[in-house]
Amino acid sequence: MPASELPSTANLRPDFIWGVSTSSFQIEGATREDGRGPSIWDVYGQKGEIKNHDTGDVACDHYHRYREDVALMKLLGVQAYRFSVAWPRVLPQGRGSVNEPGLLFYDRLIDELLAAGIEPWLCLYHWDLPQALEDLGGWMNREAVTWFADYTTLIATRFGDRVKHFATFNEPSIFNLFSRSIGKRDPTSEDNLHRAIHHVNLAHGAAVDVIREKVPGASIGCIHNFQPCWPASVDEADAVAAERLGTYWNWAFPDPQCRGEYPFLMRPAVDPHVQPGDMARICRPVDWLGLNHYSPVYVRAQPNSMLGFAFGEKPTGVPLTPIGWPINPEAFRDTLRTVHEKYGLPIYVLENGYGSYDKPDETGAVIDSERIEFLAAYVGAMNSAAASGADIRGYFVWSLLDNFEWESGYSIRFGLTYVDYASLRRFPKTSFHWYRDLIKAARQR
Ligand code: GCO
């Protein structure tokens, strides 16, 4: 599809929501300002382990530039903005004393969004666990359920008068499967993995109950990364590894949260951590499923590793983004259909985007036609999924801004807006203008 052409959105609901997404650690900076405590990603970055020794200390300086960023969202014409609260900014030790300046930042951000006519979608946890809680075992400690419920009480009580859309977690499967690399700890045992998975599911259920009690009319969900896991070869061992990873990547959280049971494949390993009544504590009624999707995952068997898998080679000829992620809009369409059929809940696509190494041209413009082609193809695929009955209610691009891309630091750019990290100036890319035109056209239908 030529970059300038807009995909069809004819099968999307008239009240479909167009948005953009970010997360606290990836854009805020000000990691040591106004009483914020350290998170596990601050500590990990201070060890120099992240590419180019990058850290989240400054990031996009959103903490000071949030008004400018809300103005960018208004220019885009988005109806909603998904952000996350940095737990250690409001509870520096993760529990106990509250940091008022931290709460005031989110008050200001939420008020600025509402004044701009943009709906705040608040995610409670996007990976920046307070280090003080990690030191007590983090998600491997069942106490984390209480810590998270208390944190949720603080947030729901403070912001529930203005925020009505809450996500408990961002991508619980991803931070459980891969966060073991944080701090380069030796891969922890599979038993610890299943312990953490279960406690995060319990924390989700506890948070849903808190929000239901504190915020009348709240709309609550959890944001999952759903991506098909395919064997990298025809070897049976790779097929087994792909099936195993797919279970943990896609179903280890939505199954207990929405169906009250773990997938069969993981029950022998997780059951030892399940106490009487736990599954009912986890399976609390939610209003929607958040769906993050980028690409299918190719898997190979890796004996003597946690869960026995590794990422496999992509088959030759598979189109890839500059950062090596397969481009497959049909996989996105099929994933939307599968999730709809499996859970029957409204779906909001809360992350979809294109990672690249964008650079300004000699005129200073950032022309990202490949990102436009990617987004057009994926929006078209989403429209097809809706045509076949998937109840899709929103699409949020990842991301508003170039930002801190975890282990890759600032080397990879996902933004509709280019961030010059030296000056912190923002420059809308051509995809920014394209997305603005898409939203305008879709909303005029
Ligand atoms: C994720 C996270 C985001 C990433 C984005 C690009 O899915 O990993 O939610 O924080 O930055 O997906 O990798």
Care to give the gist of this entry?
By secondary structure, the chain is α/β, with parallel strands linked by helices. Helices cover 40% and strands 15% of the residues.
Main features:
445 residues, alpha/beta, TIM Barrel, eight-stranded parallel β-barrel, three-stranded mixed β-sheet, globular, binds D-gluconic acid
Protein architecture, described:
The structure is a single chain. With 445 residues, the protein is an alpha/beta fold. It has a single domain (17-443), classed as Glycosidases (TIM Barrel), CATH 3.20.20. It has 16 helices and 13 strands. Strands 1-2-3-4-5-7-10-11 form an eight-stranded parallel β-barrel, surrounded by five helices. A three-stranded mixed sheet has the order 6-8-9, covered by helices on one side. Strands 12-13 form a two-stranded antiparallel ribbon. Helix 7 (144-159) packs parallel to helix 9 (190-214), helix 8 (172-178) runs antiparallel to helix 9 (190-214) and helix 14 (329-343) packs parallel to helix 15 (369-387). The longest helix has 25 residues, at 190-214. The radius of gyration is 21 Å and the shape is globular. D-gluconic acid is lined by residues 23, 26, 170-171, 174, 225, 292, 351, 398, 405, 414.
Q: Any idea of the CATH topology?
A: TIM Barrel
From the helix content, strand content and strand pairing, which structural class follows? alpha/beta
Helix content: 40-55%
What is the CA-CA span between the terminal residues?
A: 20 Å
Radius of gyration: 21 Å
According to DSSP, the number of beta strands is 13
Sheet with the most strands, sense and barrel status:
8 strands, parallel, barrel
Integer count of domains: 1
Give the strand line-up of the largest sheet: 1-2-3-4-5-7-10-11
Low-confidence stretches: none
CATH class: Alpha Beta
State the oligomer. Answer: single chain
Mean pLDDT, to the nearest integer, reads 96
State the CATH architecture: Alpha-Beta Barrel
